[in-house]
Amino acid sequence: MQVARVIGDVVATRKDPSLTGIKLLIVQPLDTARQPQGRAIVAADSAGAGVGETVFFVRGKEAAFPFHPLQTPIDAAVVGIVDDWPEAPDAQGPAAGKR
């Protein structure tokens, strides 16, 4: 599972019939510092996410699991929305050394 930011929607006038009713999103993977990492990808949405939200997504055959029993031709899917992602305490900051 990886973390990404939703940066857009995909509108397709023609697509595989098994994708009917499934929203497609453009997601930009993020590193632990919340900076873009790698290329943006298209992911099927199983969580009801929207542009600007931070989400969890999976790749590979597991991406189709939320849409079972449909046999969807997808290899990436949004499976959750991040509600809170607190900043990690800076090892050099004022909290360092406090116990």
Q: Can I get a quick summary?
A:
The protein has 99 residues and is mainly β. It is built from no helices and five strands.
What does this structure look like?
Helix content is 0%, strand content 32%. The mean pLDDT is 89. The two termini are 32 Å apart. It is elongated, with a radius of gyration of 16 Å. 17% of the residues are buried. The chain has one domain (2-81): EutN/Ccml (OB fold (Dihydrolipoamide Acetyltransferase, E2P), Beta Barrel), CATH 2.40.50. It is mainly β and 99 residues long. The chain has strands at 2-10, 24-29, 41-45, 54-59, 76-81. It has a five-stranded mixed barrel with strand order 1-2-3-5-4.
Keywords for this entry:
99 residues, mainly beta, OB fold (Dihydrolipoamide Acetyltransferase, E2P), 5 strands, 32% strand
What is the CA-atom radius of gyration, in angstroms? 16 Å
Structural class: mainly beta
Determine the mean pLDDT: 89
Within the CATH hierarchy, at the fold level, what is the topology?
Answer: OB fold (Dihydrolipoamide Acetyltransferase, E2P)
Shape: elongated
Number of domains: 1
Regions with little confidence, pLDDT below 50 for 5+ residues: none
Name of the CATH homologous superfamily = EutN/Ccml
* The first-level CATH class name: Mainly Beta
Instruction: Write down the secondary-structure element order.
Output: EEEEE
Distance between the termini: 32 Å
Based on the structure given, which CATH architecture is correct?
Beta Barrel
Separate helix tally: 0
Q: Which percent bin holds the helix content?
A: under 10%
How do the strands line up in the largest sheet? 1-2-3-5-4
Describe the largest sheet. Answer: 5 strands, mixed, barrel
